[in-house]
Amino acid sequence: MTIWTPELPEDGPRYRRIADAMAEAITRGELAPGERLPPQRRLADKLGVTIGTITRAYAEAQRQGWVESRVGSGTYVRHREAESTATFRAGQPVENGVVDMSMSLPPPHPLRPQGLRDTLLALADDPACLQRAVDYQPEYGLESHRRQLAEWLGHLGMSAEPESLVITQGGQHGLTLALQALTRPGELVAADALTYPGFIGAARQAHLKLLGVPLDEHGMDIEALSRLCARQPPRLVYTTPEQNNPTGACLTEARRERLVALAREHDFWLIEDNVQYLPEADRGTPLIELARSEPCAFSVPPRCWPAVCESAPWSFPKRCWGESAVPCAPRPGWCRR
């Protein structure tokens, strides 16, 4: 019987290359859910490696959530159909009489659809603008758009250089890009026990292990996060310091400082989601500002239409259009939305 035999790249530890090949084969459908993987000794002989290398590779693939071992039976590709990778309920109907409180949303206001309508009509009457819209654009977005966004953010009291901004397809896209850039499947990420459903969906889609950190009226319990770090530091922590979604809790200044200190101590990333805009007098110090001396955070700013992500020396904010900041320096870093 022909057994699955991966083609391995040249670089990296052999066990990790085998685990990565396994993940790719599962993603492509070459290894089907429920399919039994080759016995470790047979695969070791086929690849010319030790059985210990195969054991480590299978363990790594299981850690990442691709396979599962069954005592006395072998190792099998996990069934993933039952796992919800899209728990983001935005725009989905709810039963009559049910109030969906899984997300904090602004109250309806006629100025919002009217503003969008007026903008689209203005674009329709501008042939040059329409032509730019159908042309291929730079992967970072048009320079004029990034300059205007940087200027707009400056009016809100949030400094950003056009060179640090990248146009995305919305805040959800920015979060997904941040997770793809900063994590590997199977790694641990942490967030408030009650948090934005879109982040939960993005984390599951990236095959990450998501852990909820307790929170109270003052936001995330940083001491609980510290105890978690003592056992197993996460790769990344996601938080909404201003008006947690959905509870509305605001992270205190002391907890912000402690969170940034923890990120530096345990070498994990921060994604700071600032989707809810607050006037400068009513908001705390952004994590991206606290971490500027030694970046460890990504930031996603307040939303207006789609959403934004900006980057200082490593930041990913989410703001108003669908914009994302790309880090300009190596680790550590922070992420704000």
TrEMBL record:
It holds the Pfam family Aminotran_1_2. Keywords: DNA-binding, Pyridoxal phosphate, Transcription, Transcription regulation. Residues 12-80 form the HTH gntR-type domain. GO terms for molecular function: DNA binding; DNA-binding transcription factor activity; pyridoxal phosphate binding. InterPro entries: Aminotransferase_I/II_large, HTH_trans_reg/aminotransferase, PyrdxlP-dep_Trfase, PyrdxlP-dep_Trfase_major, PyrdxlP-dep_Trfase_small, Tscrpt_reg_HTH_GntR, WH-like_DNA-bd_sf, WH_DNA-bd_sf. The keyword DNA-binding applies. PANTHER family: HTH-TYPE TRANSCRIPTIONAL REGULATORY PROTEIN GABR. In the C-terminal section; belongs to the class-I pyridoxal-phosphate-dependent aminotransferase family. This is Putative HTH-type transcriptional regulator YjiR. It comes from Halomonas elongata. The gene is yjiR_1.
